Amino acid sequence: MNNPLFKPQAIILDRDGVVNEVVIKEGKISSPHLPEEFVIRRDFSHFCAFLFHLQVPVFVASNQPDVKRGLMSEMALAAMTKQLCGEYPIIQEVLYCLHDDIDACACRKPKPGLLQALIEEHRLAKETTLFIGDSHKDVLAGQSAGLKTVFLRKNYNQASLQLCQPDIIVSELMELTSMFTSKEGTHV
Ligand SMILES: [Mg+2]
């Protein structure tokens, strides 16, 4: 990474695989469906502490179609969100798309609707806001919204990486901190 140092105005993260661990069910990557399956990634925890130090606000934008698919209750999802925001008050807002493909909504990633809503509501500068995800759908959504994109590379998403061209690829969120400065006015 040869990017110059900059102060992000905001960091937007995908949830599953970035904020919390993915769940492996019958050999497949899945989302947590129960609060007890919701395990925050240690790397995210360290990253939040760093962003708190820099006073950079954090947002979460996540597809959660499994309520509609009957695999998770709305109460369980709400409990996870409550836990997350309670433990990490630096998180300003968590936005979910609860639709499925058949709904043809504007918010299900790779569509940019969730990100556009956050950008507009919080008046985020696209040049200095990063969107971090672990899927090509995240990268495509981020690029459609005009954001710089970060792909969090893990052993389960190598094929997904082949389907997109993120601005930055890291194996841990904390790798990004070497790019950040507390000084205002610098750009990616
Ligand atoms: Mg994910």
- The 3D shape can be described as globular
Rounded Rg: 16 Å
> What class do helices, strands and sheet pairing give?
alpha/beta
Task: Based on the coordinates given, report the CATH architecture.
Answer: 3-Layer(aba) Sandwich
Number of strands: 8
**What ions, cofactors and ligands are bound?**
magnesium ion
For the largest beta sheet, what order do the strands appear in spatially?
A: 5-4-1-6-7-8
Count of discrete structural domains: 1
Mind telling me the CATH superfamily name?
HAD superfamily/HAD-like
End-to-end Cα distance: 11 Å
Strand proportion, as a percent range, falls in 15-25%
The helix-strand sequence is: EEEHEHEHEHEHE
Mean pLDDT rating:
94
Unreliable runs, pLDDT <50, ≥5 residues? none
Q: Write down the CATH topology.
A: Rossmann fold
CATH C-level class is Alpha Beta
Largest sheet: 6 strands, parallel
In DSSP terms (H or I, runs of 4 or more residues), the helix count works out at 5
Level of helix content?
Answer: 25-40%
Structure description:
The chain is α/β, with parallel strands linked by helices and 188 residues long. The strands form two sheets. Strands 5-4-1-6-7-8 form a six-stranded parallel β-sheet, sandwiched between helices. Strands 2-3 form a two-stranded antiparallel ribbon. It has a single domain, classed as HAD superfamily/HAD-like (Rossmann fold). 26% of the residues lie in helices and 19% in strands. The mean pLDDT is 94. Helix 4 links the parallel strand 6 (129-133) and strand 7 (148-152). It contains five helices and eight strands, in the order βββαβαβαβαβαβ. It has helices spanning 42-54, 74-87, 113-121, 136-144, 158-161; strands at residues 10-13, 23-25, 28-30, 58-63, 91-97, 129-133, 148-152, 168-170. The structure holds magnesium ion. Magnesium ion (MG) is lined by residues 14, 16-18, 133-135.
